[in-house]
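Reviewers of the previous submission asked for a worked example of the structure-prediction workflow described in the proposal, so we include one complete record here. The input consisted solely of the amino acid sequence. No template or homolog information was supplied to the procedure at any stage.
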Amino acid sequence: MKILNKIFFVCFLLYFLAVAAMADMPDANMKRTVFDNGLVVLTHEKHDNPLISIHIWVRCGSIYEPQSIRGISHFYEHMIFRGTNDVRVGEINRTIEKWGGTVNAVTSKDYTQYYFVVNKKYAMDALKLLAEGVINTQFTEMDLERSIVLEELRSTVNNPENYIFDMFVSTLMEKNSYKWPVIGYEDTVNAITREDFIKYQKSYYRPNNMCVVIVGDFETDKILPQVKDIFSKFENATVPPLKVSLDEPLSEVRRVQDDMGLPQATVIFGFEGPGILDNPEDICPVDVMAFLLGWGESSRFAREVKEEKKLADELQVVYLTSRYPSPFYVWAVTDKNKVSLLEEELREQFKRLAEEPVSEKELNRARILLESSYIFGNETADGLAGTYGYYEILADNVDFSKTYVQNIRKVTQEDIMRVAKKYFGAGNYTIAVLK
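From that input alone, the workflow returned the following structure tokens.
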């Protein structure tokens, strides 16, 4: 078995290197253009098929919301398909799908993203439709869409995985706006009025607070004037400054527990990791640390916590890059009688990580897996567009995407110890348990 594993690893590495050489990665092919109205446009020509992926990113998500109307960003995402003065209800979906394309949207804590993939001959017509819906929606049929949002909210709240995550984040964070759920609360969603939507639209849904990303089969010099013409009809606004309140480092161990009558216990153990705005130099080491600890069955936690000590039946290590400090956590499912043992083991594991260098073998495996995951995620036009928009919005610097792989390769044993000590060195953490 060990010989077969080595053969597989060598074959995987060779395949990975071949893919890395061929992949159309974030690179100098990307062009960043800023129009007079402040709209940022990122273009990357990719001529391997006749498709174009276009994303509209808006720098507003749940952290931008007033407390009384939490959930308005997600609700707004739903409303853009309800029509404008020039676009009928459902026309965006129907038309793009008629052209053989797909269209979707997602709301996060940092941003809202609207995107489609379509044949290049329909791309500008599709962008015109989507831009009109995104910026000029008239908020008709609010109560109908509200009922859909509320049903989604209830199913989310009643899901054990979402429930424990909300428990964990609201205990970990006191001031940080990431503690609030994207979907909001039933009372705040019910409180949202048409006037609230109009104010939110005029404040954030303006060209100078947006980024358009275009990847696919087109010529940049020909497509940019068309994009400029589409967005020139929309007015700018003075975007309200985001007042960010961040937490002090944990000075204690925080615990929260609830009972839903589950057959096993679900545990989240974690702490606040870096934000890309204040600590960009820590992002790659922390990403590598997450892969080293929890990616795949040969990761440290899978081997030592799951297989050797039998303290968890399922286990994942999660860190999602955000603008501001966000959770780094271990999610696990275990026997109810093993919760204390699992907590002690995780505490010792992170202490060890801060005090002892990881092996070069472990580190190299984590770097390779993270690099390959990043490259595979950028193989398609849609994946590449997502990467560009993500870093332009989160880091205010799309170039972060172009240097990511090189920075992953530079992560050292000392870097892993440094970030482990920086974010967990005091030994304080938050643990949530749902039984």
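The chain has a mean pLDDT of 92. We consider this example representative of the routine output the project will generate in years two and three.
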